[in-house]
Write a structure and sequence with these properties.
This protein is mainly β. The protein is built from no helices and eleven strands. The strands form two sheets. Strands 2, 4, 5, 6, 9, 10 and 11 form a seven-stranded mixed sheet that branches. It has a four-stranded antiparallel sheet with strand order 1-3-8-7, with no helix packed on it. A hairpin with a 6-residue loop joins strand 4 and strand 5. 28% of the residues are buried.
Length: 120
């Protein structure tokens, strides 16, 4: 079993900052890609940022320059630093990890989601 535990969501004013964390635990052989997705009401889930185990990153165009993804490999933890937040960043944010377990094909696992609300 693989578990993803998220923290750091909440209410923030426009222009403010939040840092999301996601820790992965379980019988893990290796974690490959990790990422953050978000889903706003009435919209499909979209990729915000992703990072490989080698440190390569990808960002949605809408968040480039404002949001940074990072990873602590030793702690099996991924972070999302969000700055200059806008109301349109309001969404449920989901952590994702591509995980290999012994005797099991690599698969994607998801966190429970954490609400980020940007409002005055």
């Amino acid at each position: 079993q693989v578990q993803l535990v998220e923290s750091g969501g909440g209410l923030v004013q426009p222009g403010g900052s939040l840092r999301l964390s996601c820790a992965v635990s379980g019988s893990i052989v290796s974690i490959y890609n990790m990422g953050w997705y978000r889903q706003a009401p009435g919209k499909q889930r979209e990729l915000v940022a992703a990072i490989t185990n080698g440190g390569s990153t990808n960002y949605a165009d809408s968040v480039k320059g404002r949001i940074a993804i990072s990873r602590d490999v030793a702690k099996n933890t991924v972070y999302l630093q969000m700055n200059s937040l806008k109301p349109e960043d309001t969404a449920v944010y989901y952590c994702n990890a591509n995980v290999a377990r012994f005797g099991v094909v690599r698969a994607d696992y998801w966190g429970q989601g954490t609400q980020v609300t940007v409002s005055s």
